[in-house]
Write a structure and sequence with these properties.
Shape: elongated
Structural class: mainly alpha
Strand content: under 5%
Order of helices and strands: HHHHH
Helix content: over 70%
Largest sheet: none
Radius of gyration: 18 Å
Number of helices: 5
Length: 156
Amino acid sequence: MSNLGLALALIGAALSAVLAGIGSAKGVGKVGESASGLVSQDPSKFSKALILQLLPGTQGLYGLLVATLLLNRVGLMGGTAVDLSWAQGLMYLGASLPMALGGLFSGIAQGRTAAAGIGIIAKKPDESGKAIIMAAMVETYAILSLLISILIIYNI
C-alpha cells in the first residue's frame, strides 16, 4: 500500500488529461460538423469557421498542462517519484478535478456555442467577431479551472 498515494496522484493526472481531452474532442467535433456544412456551401468561409473550431481545443491543452505539472510535482517527469502518503495522493487527485471536470464541461459547452456561431458566419460573415466573442466567453471557465488546479497543486 506504500504506492497508494502515488497511484491516486497518477489517477488525478490521467483524469485531468482525459476528461479535458474528451471535452475538447466533443467540442471541436461538434463545430467541425457545423463548419463542414457551411464550407460545402461556401468554401470562402473556411478560415472564419476554422477559428471557431479551434476554440474548444484549448481545454484539452489545459488538461495536459495540469497533468504535466502534477507529474512533475510528484517527481515522475525527469526525476524520481516522491513518497506520497495516501492523503497527499488524494489531495493531488482532488487538485486535478477542477481542470478535469471544468475542461470536460466547458469544452462541450464551448463547442455548442461555437457551432451556433457558424450560423452567424453563414448568414452574416462580417459579424464573425461576435460569434468568436460568444464562444470565447466560455473559455473563461476553462481558464478558472486551470488556475485553481495549478494553485492547489503547488500548495500541496
